[in-house]
Amino acid sequence: MKRIFLFGFLFFVSNVFAVIYTPADVAEFRKAAARGDAEAQCELGVCYEYGFGVQEDLKQAVVWYRKAAEQGYAEAQLYLAHCYYKGIGVQKDLKQAVVWYRKAAEQGEKEAQYNLGLCYYNGFGVQKDLKQAVHWYRKAAEQNEVDALCNLGNCYYNGHGVQKNPEKAVFWYRKGIEQRYPRAQCNLGICYHNGEGVEKDLKQAVYWYREAAEQGYADAQFYLGFCYAYGYGVEKDLKQAVVWYHKAAKQGHAKAREALKRVSVLR
Fold this sequence. Notes:
Shape: elongated
Mean pLDDT: 93
Radius of gyration: 22 Å
Number of strands: 2
Order of helices and strands: EEHHHHHHHHHHHHHH
């Protein structure tokens, strides 16, 4: 099962639920969990965390995640790490989050690898180490974890933890684009806009900004508005600039809000 976690400004991707469990499911999970079945223990934790078929009880969720995690069940290790990261049913403890992300990551759990990379990149619960961040991003990216593809591309683009190489950044962004990931589309647009890693091509920049913007990605909406405002890769059109700036601003994009003020003066 897949869930998506949002940790502040960072995206921590795990499994998105395809089903919602019933009380009958919970009863079956409980029986199997009592026999020591790690998968059932993990699923029982899910039920308690989200109130599927049982009253929500975050502390009980942690109890069952821990039982499964201590048996080496990678998905439960990932979920327990999430609980420690956010303080869900347990006191927030970033160091413990890293402990459990690492256990799951070492078993090849791609979301845990990505999350561990984020922790190393930002110094959350562990000493900041950009090379280790790249190491874990790469592990997850090689399994096509989409945020890891993008973040690894960013590391190559900016020279963080690895030698700066815009061409390799473009390679990883394109991998993300294969999954129609808007952040990767927007980043490739930036590469075309600046002529980094690819030959400069403002029309291609606009194309990729639009692809991401139409999926609701605020940064791309801002950049597309910027292109319309100044005629980069598209005919100058202040009305269209306002449309896209407004879409980004509605999502809280600070630069878009400032841009709207400037466009109102130009009009």
